[in-house]
Prior knowledge:
alpha/beta; 11 helices; homodimer; seven-stranded mixed beta sheet; 23% strand
Amino acid sequence: xxxxxxxxxxxxxxxxxxxxxxxxxxxxxxxxxxxxxxxxxxxxxxxxxxxxxxxxxxxxxxxxxxxxxxxxxxxxxxxxxxxxxxxxxxxxxxxxxxxxxxxxxxxxxxxxxxxxxxxxxxxxxxxxxxxxxxxxxxxxxxxxxxxxxxxxxxxxxxxxxxxxxxxxxxxxxxxxxxxxxxxxxxxxxxxxxxxxxxxxxxxxxxxxxxxxxxxxxxxxxxxxxxxxxxxxxxxxxxxxxxxxxxxxxxxxxxxxxxxxxxxxxxxxxxxxxxxxxxxxxxxxxxxxxxxxxxxxxxxxxxxxxxxxxxxxxxxxxxxxxxxxxxxxxxxxxxxxxxxxxxxxxxxxxxxxxxxxxxxxxxxxxxxxxx
Amino acid sequence: xxxxxxxxxxxxxxxxxxxxxxxxxxxxxxxxxxxxxxxxxxxxxxxxxxxxxxxxxxxxxxxxxxxxxxxxxxxxxxxxxxxxxxxxxxxxxxxxxxxxxxxxxxxxxxxxxxxxxxxxxxxxxxxxxxxxxxxxxxxxxxxxxxxxxxxxxxxxxxxxxxxxxxxxxxxxxxxxxxxxxxxxxxxxxxxxxxxxxxxxxxxxxxxxxxxxxxxxxxxxxxxxxxxxxxxxxxxxxxxxxxxxxxxxxxxxxxxxxxxxxxxxxxxxxxxxxxxxxxxxxxxxxxxxxxxxxxxxxxxxxxxxxxxxxxxxxxxxxxxxxxxxxxxxxxxxxxxxxxxxxxxxxxxxxxxxxxxxxxxxxxxxxxxxxx
Lengths: 370, 370
């Protein structure tokens, strides 16, 4: 079939809107009509050329929601008409990782996904001239239609609006999941969130959901304060306005250090501050942000020997097919908010404008609606 | 009273055996006759002058066992005749740390202990001329008699031999506790232990106790192999004999990385190797060793984001008054071994010989018997 997509032709160039060919689903695959997709910093990271693993030409986008149109042979868990959220972290429920209680990093389709192809080693996308176009993060939601492995789709309720729940495909789950699934924050905890962008805001509402008593937000941009407060932030700190070192200031503000700290900046110096601002004896610091290639974190081992732990999270520790439908329920039940974070809605033709809004810091999330 | 002690007069000098004055126990304090004491690397670290927090003159030693001779006013949990193991990590059972489920770092006597004095700010030790001598780690087991806070003493069964259970005061608990209390290693796990000295051997027997299926020991000294095998090591790796990088070698040996890795070297480069040799998705790396002042650990944050966690342990995460008596039981019941690790027994007069044996790598543990 033919469909319309925004294609990343090469690193550093704007996406090009064009018609592309899409082959139908093969064994274990599913054809999905994407109804809406968010534009995430990870798409930007790859498009810019900064991602050393970025491949071109490709159809980016990994934060979508849509409807199943057709299933390939052997697909048993989905039927046409099902509403789905694509998963860049699959959940096969049979690999060593899926069967291990401490991780969500399913390896079933990992290797081929990283190469921009389906598990059989080929791409379903091509130009009208027949040249292959690569998939991206196993999703390629910047195409109106896409093909995914069955294990890379979470089936969700049909009454949830696509233009909001698409955000659960990455940002919402990454932030809330870091709190609920990775850190397992307890009622009454004190926490610090570094970076109040789209991920940081979702960490904050995750902390509110978990019943944290103190939720400190740290950002160099004062304009982030009011939105963060809306999602549950109790204290705002602009490091530029703190006299002296930031770590002792935050330790004092949290009465000895935070029970949990979260880095949502990707800056390795901030990651160190986050670890050291966590409480002696039991503080846990969770890295969410993606650092530039080659960057390293460091600290004195004494920080760990005296009881702090340093951890990380990918996709919020969520098992996609199991947890994403629950998060959709939380949204529909009003336990979490998404609407205020979707600051811009665009058509596919205007998708590059979404990247510009991100660069300018004007959007929390821009969503493309097909 | 007068007692005999090995006194650390100044950094870098041998201990001097002399008679010293010891004041009786004040409120909340206990007079203990030390029957045996181990000589630990931490004593050596302080005596050498490398410990930036080392104070002199002081009576070192923190790995002892003895008998209560007298209790001060208000002491309720001990009576004369009780057998005890001194604790450099107290357990008051009422501070914020003792009441927190995730830490053993009781803060009750921490500040004064670090200054070499009792909680009232004074020392019980002095020279026969009346000049004060400082306590060390709240224990000072290199004196035949010593005074400790009640909260710094674990009461243990009376049939356990002092010259063996003194080792539970530090090395045994640190190694076994890192496995049982800090890492909480599960049955069937794969683990790697870096450094096969006294701590490393106890990590190994802790792993055997926990039911680990694979226990890899890593040491540059081949002579460590046979003793480590006796305690449960299943695979030995000498990094000097590995071609290429050590991390992929260890990852391959453990079928994808170890579930748990332990650093018992204090070398920050080894700490990084330990983290990176742990399994993607769920590997936990525990730092036990004490690094030189100012040394830093580092890694790419990607190591954590893909599911590894970096933690540390002090006194094996054990709550001294609660857990040390249990470990004594484990020894008496034959669940753990201590005897083969006590390679040398000395009189107090020969204590400096114990330090020389340690330097020469000839001892696992030397014990002074009074």
